[in-house]
Design brief:
Keywords: Lyase. By secondary structure, the chain is mainly α. The chain has six helices and no strands. The chain is globular and about 45 Å long.
């Protein structure tokens, strides 16, 4: 896509920050990613440093968040994360045909303990590079 259309001014945005550095190297414009809703600063930081030595570390951090949500119903999982983080249960509502992430995602028959995955993402998101906790505005 980039090779065929970028020269004509067509901006190509891959659908995941996982592909962002490679896309930028060949003329991509950025990315449109579902996880930008919960990790905008991390993805922006990756965009800002993609030509520098810090790119690998920032890519690893941004991709780690993506990988936590990837096996889950991604929209419902991100909305559940926002609901928890904002202490606003209404944030977990989704529009049909999507369904709300179960409150107890470790129920029999569930393949993934979603809450544990979400809590892991939240721990990563609240850490700054260097291991210091970030202020979440509370």
């Amino acid at each position: 896509m980039i090779d065929n259309f970028a020269a004509d001014g067509f901006a190509v945005f891959p659908a995941s920050e996982s592909f962002l550095p490679e896309a930028l190297h060949i003329g991509g414009a950025g990315c449109i990613s579902a996880t930008a809703n919960i990790n905008p600063a991390g993805i922006r930081a990756l965009y800002d440093v993609w030509k520098t030595i810090q790119a690998r570390e920032q890519h690893t951090r941004a991709t780690a968040i993506r990988q936590i949500f990837q096996p889950l119903p991604i929209i419902a999982a991100m909305k559940a994360t926002l609901a928890h983080w904002r202490r606003a249960p209404s944030w977990q509502h989704v529009r049909p045909p999507l369904t709300v992430l179960p409150c107890r995602a470790n129920q029999p028959g569930d393949a993934i303990n979603a809450r544990r995955h979400i809590e892991k993402a939240m721990r990563i998101l609240t850490r700054r590079p260097g291991g210091h906790r970030a202020d979440r505005g509370r």
